[in-house]
Design goal:
Rossmann fold; 6-stranded parallel β-sheet; globular; about 400 residues; 2 domains; 15 helices; 7-stranded parallel β-sheet; alpha/beta; single chain
Length: about 400
């Protein structure tokens, strides 16, 4: 494998991803990685397969990156997608095809098998199927396709050891490499002017005297929102003034039960559900909070947690998978058992009552991310993976 210092020409990468919008973990990763990779003489062009949302695509173009929007009419319109992809791949000289998420990986592998000899890398951002095997026939077919095509990739890379182990257990992929997600620590703000903080909190119905919790996560069962609501119930029973809670995320399968719990317990005055925010606005809201909480039941890595820790705000996480890898032994987040409303309530109460501890926790968390998960660490690791498949 070549060292980074031995590069005599730029590496050209074609990054294929489902869409470039609304800041999911994979989308946020490639967006942050592109300029860091460019510093290492790695040029990245992007394929936006479906173009449902494209705010990040526009920002990438403004930074000088080329974005190809295929606007494929349906996820499974493979002939249409491959025809459009063929024109881009065969007219350019790329060194690596780099897939992200299910359909990004799918199209990369089909392109490689049908009309390209270019080395391919598939990136595994979420769990495989070991703990939740597919049950329906369509799900089983979809899983079979992923397993067969994925086995043909030159390299498989997971965003954490938890993800790598899950794919190894289900597909027998024992050679999955691990490259942790990274965050651009230098670009994430750590301060908010007092007037801006007050104005932002007021716009969300939060007073300065309120203790504000922000939860940046999709409203699905895996994210554990219901346990935070139960923790509020415990705090209420202790006659503690309830914190304000803002759930920020795409509505999913747990939306109804979350809203039902809020209604049944008359939490409408303290809990609000907001649509996803543009990424800079989400970071500002985190800075305006008193604590960021992610009570997940499972988590492949947790890029939202890494970003929250980078702001220097105190963070409460559950002792699961990627969060355990993210925090390590740094004491950079307050860790509680998943599905334990009691531990979550205790952790919230501790931060509400001890400002100095909260401040120290936030500082440790920020240092943990700077030392281990800065985007430049991630870019260097990815550059080595690119070189490994090019030189193989």
């Amino acid at each position: 494998m070549k060292s980074l210092g031995n590069l005599t020409k730029n590496i050209r990468i074609l990054c294929v991803i489902e869409t470039l919008g609304f800041g999911g973990g994979a989308e946020q990763l490639v967006f942050s990685l592109a300029p860091a990779l460019r510093e290492l003489n790695v040029d990245v062009e992007f394929i936006d397969l479906f173009s449902w949302h494209d705010d990040m695509g526009v920002d990438l173009e403004n930074m000088g990156f080329r974005v190809h929007r295929l606007n494929i009419s349906h996820r499974w319109s493979l002939f249409e997608g491959l025809l459009k992809l063929h024109n881009i791949v065969t007219r350019n000289q790329f060194d690596v095809l780099w897939g992200h998420l299910y359909f990004g990986n799918l199209y990369v592998q089909l392109a490689k098998l049908l009309f390209s000899n270019i080395p391919s890398i598939i990136t595994l951002h979420s769990y495989g199927y070991n703990n939740d095997p597919p049950k329906s026939v369509p799900a089983k077919i979809k899983t079979y396709v992923e397993g067969w095509l994925g086995s043909k990739a030159n390299l498989r890379v997971g965003v954490s050891h938890a993800v790598a182990k899950d794919y190894a257990a289900y597909f027998g992929w024992n050679d999955v490499q691990v490259v942790y997600n990274g965050v651009p620590t230098l670009n994430i703000p750590t301060q908010l002017a007092t007037a801006d903080r007050t104005l932002l909190r007021t716009s969300h119905g939060v007073d300065e005297a309120d203790f504000l919790i922000v939860v940046p996560a999709r409203l699905v069962r895996q994210k554990g929102h219901i346990y935070l609501l139960r923790a509020l119930e415990i705090l209420k029973a202790k006659d503690i003034r309830l914190p304000k809670v803002i759930f920020i995320g795409v509505k999913g399968g747990d939306s109804f039960s979350i809203q039902l719990f809020i209604d049944d317990h008359q939490f409408e005055s303290v809990v609000s559900i907001k649509e996803p925010l543009p990424h800079p606005d989400l970071l500002r809201l985190m800075l305006a909070s008193d604590v960021v909480i992610l009570p997940s039941l499972r988590e492949p890595f947790g890029i939202a947690a890494a970003e929250a820790m980078t702001t220097g705000k105190p963070v409460i996480l559950t002792k699961v998978d990627g969060f355990i890898e993210l925090v390590g032994d740094s004491e950079g987040a307050l860790m509680v058992q998943s599905e334990s409303a009691e531990e979550l309530a205790d952790a919230i109460q501790r931060l509400m009552m001890n400002f100095k501890f909260a401040e120290e926790l936030g500082a440790k968390g920020r240092q943990r991310i700077i030392d281990n998960f800065d985007i430049h660490h991630c870019a260097s690791a990815w550059c080595y993976q690119f070189l490994s498949v090019i030189n193989h």
